[in-house]
What we know:
The protein is mainly beta. The protein has no helices and five strands.
Amino acid sequence: MGEVTVRFVGGPADGLVRRLPAGSDGAPPRRWIMRHPDRTGPVQPGPDHLYERDRPDEAGGWSMRFVRTDAYGVSE
């Protein structure tokens, strides 16, 4: 399995570009849950931000569009 470049559109990760796992078809996962990687402070993790695969771009990457924010663990 390889990786594909993805740009997140909307929500808290708007404009973030990241490498995600690619399926055998070269596309990123249909859905991706974004969590803040540098969480410090209280024991309770922050919310989940749900993104869905949108479409490929002309540079060979993909976009993931923001769907909603849920409490930690609800999106899974």
